[in-house]
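Study this:
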Amino acid sequence: MPHIAAVVVEPSAVGHVVVRRVEAPTPRAGEALVRVRATSLNRGEIRQAGQGPAGRRIGWDFAGVIERAADDVPGPATGARVVGMLRAGAWGELISAPVEALAVLPEGVDFARAATLPVAGLTALYGLDRADGLIGRRVLITGGTGGVGHFAIQLARVGGAHVVATVRREAQVALVRDAGAREVVVGDEKAKLQAAGPYDLVLDGVGGAGLGAALASLAKQGAAVVYGATGGGEPPFDARTFYATGGASLYGFILFHELTSKPAGVGLARLARLLDEARLRAPIEVEGGLAEIGELAQRLEDRAFTGKAVVRFD
């Protein structure tokens, strides 16, 4: 059985991951074989790695070339450049992937930028899709300097929304304004967030006090979509203000649940096209080779940078 280089969990290692030789994959029904050229890191993967068990394959995002097309269902042809995502195991030089999780890349989109799209880009895209249209809507994006937040600001702007974004520090204001935010709130103070509202849609990955303030600032029929809680899982919540708003809703967003009704390949094709048309920019902060993945994972866990980290499989 041939072997490949892949990333596996090692809780005691830097970043909780190491590169090992593992058995090469054998595609199942409906799957293509993909030679991976780049991946990007997400905090969810790093949390999984820290929890073990040792030897587990992890990784969601990838971009690469079809080495062998699926032979039982229509999909990208052998040699096609693609972007895609897996539930686990994408951090390997050769992987098997369901064709519905793949999208063919336009010629103008390189592997590094494409690799940032799956988890961060799809969370932003499908989260914003919860709105009943974006033109003229007032949208609050929390955590605007993160991968999801940065993509969401750009996508909401492209959709015609008036975007309000939150950041932690004054030094980050210019970054989110450049991405397309019309207004920026520094911190999560209730008065500041309410002053910038009311909001037709809130896309929140921070939680904590900021989410409590956002829920109290929804417009009638407004919706808050929560995909994370990096700032705390228990926001102060005034039920009277919330129900008295009229038609306000709170939606728990888990990407892998969304993918049961919206295949990854569909959304990735939309995002890749926007990259190709220069209407979307990939927020790449750092890049490195496969041998550096542990160091990059540790830096991501330590919040040593904003934006996305890309690992190249050269």
User: Anything to note?
Assistant: The chain has eleven helices and 15 strands. The CA atoms of residues 130 and 288 lie 35 Å apart. The chain has two domains: 3-120+259-312, 131-252.
